[in-house]
Each structure stands twice: as structure tokens, then as C-alpha cells.
Amino acid sequence: MFLSSRAGLRSCGARIATSNTRCASVLAPTAPSAPTAAAATPLHNNNNKINYIQSFSTAAKPSTAQLVKQLREMTGAPMMECKKALSTPEVDHDLEKAQEWLRKYGSAKASSKVAGREALEGLVGVKIEGDRASIVQVKSETDFASRSETFSTFVQEIADAATAGDVNGDVDIGAFMASAKDSKGQVLSETLNDAILAIRENIQVDSMVIMKASSDKSVLAGYVHGRAPNSSCGSAAAVVEVEVTSDAGSEKAEEAAKKLAMHVVAAKPTYLNPESVPEDVVNKEKEILLEKMTGTNKPPEIMEKIVAGQMRKFYEGICLTEQSHMVEEGNPKVSKAMKSLGLEVKNYTLVGMSK
Q: Which helix or strand (DSSP H or E) is residue 291 part of?
């Protein structure tokens, strides 16, 4: 009986020990298992025991749709062109390589498609920097395109680059575009290709004139008419140079030049003054006036006076200095208005979109 009881106690103790072991195994904290996708790098410590450091990457790669969206925002290229560029084997969804691919293939393809198409719309851009000013005209096919931010930004880039150079007067546009650079350091010919790729229209840098002040007493000022939304470019623009001829003119020169530039855009003079009108133009006009008086039997001296009077009206229509100032109160003659301010008109440039 006693032996049986001791055996029973030993059996009970064994069961209790086994139960405690199981509970301990359940309650004991366990090390978190590493994700199967994580990479394990073995390192040896001073005790020659191997430890493992797990490396994790939480940043997910952007999807193709996200990359296409980013590339469109960066280049302005159509969605299908961006998708094609990203999926090209040599690009392999690399944004930087995709931009290069679009410049190389997308721009060339777009340029070849739009080449030769009529471009009658566009904008005029102006940049004045110290004693230099540029006025450029860039054309597009549609008014919608010319009013876009991409187009107006491109026009201003051209004007800015022209002012920064050292060329004066009329510019060799082809040579200029191949050598001058935009604000990002890119050659302007490539900037043009980027604009064509984004807008998908024929874009032409049609004209470019650079003015330089003729003396250190001169002031340059400009006016842009019909500005595009959120842009400094417009449908027409003028730049005027006035020279200070008295101390009083120094304070009023810039404001007077701006007003005169507004007048130039509105009045559209062809020449600066009567002296600048070509001789053949003057002679042709006199011939027309004399032919009108043929058969009137008027004495030659009377006919000469009539022709002189008519020529004054002719100059008033085409010469800036002889026109009535459309912005000044009372509309005085431009030359007289400038003289009263201690100023003299030295030069001007007018560029406008004509269809």
C-alpha cells in the first residue's frame, strides 16, 4: 500500500513537471521571425559566432502609370509617347533616360510631322537689361497654343537669351538658336524641339531685333500689348530709346519712353523722322501728288506749295517724330512733347503679329 502510494506520487510529479514544461514553452517570449523577403547578411563577431543583420526596404517602386504622369509633367509630351519612351528596353523605366529618348526620337518625329504647316499665330516677347533690349516674334499654328504657358515661356527664354548676348541689330536666327542657351543651360535649338514635342505644332522663331542704347544718356523702355495669361509676352510690342538732353529730362525719361512705346504700338509709325524716309519713297509720293494736279493749270510755284503741304501730312502718317502723341494729354506732336520734357527720340522698334 505504501509502495503503491509512493509510485503514484512519483507518477503525479512527472505529469506536473511535464505540464509545467509545456506551460513554460507557451509563455516564454519568442524572437520574432524575419520576413522571408528580407535579405540576411552574416557577420562574424570576436567570438567567431555568426550573427545576422536583416535589411528591409519599405519604399515601393512607382508604378508605370505614376512614371508616365511624372514624365508628362517634366516634358509635356503626350501620354502614349511617354509610355513608349519608358517601356523602351534601353530606357527600362528610368526617367532621366526617358527624357533623353524623347528629345532624340520624340522631338525629331514631332518636328518632321509639323514642318511646313502654316504658322500665323504667336507672341512677341521683350527683354530690357540696362543699355540692351531684345524684341522677338515666335509663331505657332493656333491661338490656343500661343496662349499656353509652355509657348509663352519659350518666347521669353528666347528674348532673355538675346539680351544676354553681344549681337546688335538684326540677328542670324539659325546661328543664334544653335549657339545660345536658355536659363537651364540647354541650347535653344533643343529647347525649341522640346516645345514642339509638348505643343505638337509648328513653331518658328520668325524675327529678332536687338537694340543697344546709342549713348550713356539714353534710356530704353518698352510696352507689350495684348498679353497672354500669366505671361509678359503679347500680340504686339515696342521698344523706344530716348536721350536725355537736359537735367530736367533725367527724372522723366523712363516714364516718357514707356508712354511713347505705347504710342508706337497704337500708331504704328514706319520711320523715325522725315530724314530717315528713303529718297525713292519720297520721290514716289511727290510724283503721285503732282499727277493729281495735272490739268489744273495752276502755276508751278503754287503746285510746289501744295505738294509741300501734302508731304507734311504724309510724314505725319508714317514718321514717329511727326505724329500726334496719342498718350500725352492734348496730343502734341511727338518731337515737341519730347523736347518739352528735355528728351529726344533716338530709335524705336515695333513688332506685331499680322495675319
A: helix 279-292
The pair phi, psi for residue 67, each rounded to 5°, is -65, -40
What pLDDT digit, counting tens, does each position of 241-285 carry? 999 999 888 889 999 999 999 999 999 999 999 999 999 999 999
Can you tell me whether residue 165 is helix, strand or coil? coil
171: nearest Cα among 204, 138, 211: 211
Residue 206 C-alpha cell reads as 520668325
Reported as a single tens digit per residue, the pLDDT across 207-216 is 999 999 999 9
CB 136 within 8 A of CB 162: yes
- Which residues, in sequence order, are bridge partners of residue 124? 137, 234
For the full predicted model, state whether its pTM sits above 0.85: no
* Coil, strand or helix at 212: strand
Give me the residue label for grid cell 527600362. Answer: 92
Return the C-alpha cell found at 264: 508706337
Residues 351 and 125: their CA atoms lie apart, in Å, by 9
Contact between 199 and 109 (Cβ < 8 Å): no
Task: Return d(Cα 327, Cα 255) in angstroms, integer.
Answer: 12
Smallest CA-to-CA distance from 233 within 155, 165, 302, 289 is with: 155
- Based on the number of CB atoms within 10 Å of its own CB, is 190 exposed (0-12), middle (13-18) or buried (19 or more)? middle
List, as own/partner pairs, every contact residues 36-41 make where C-beta atoms lie below 8 angstroms and the sequence separation is at least 24, other chains included: none
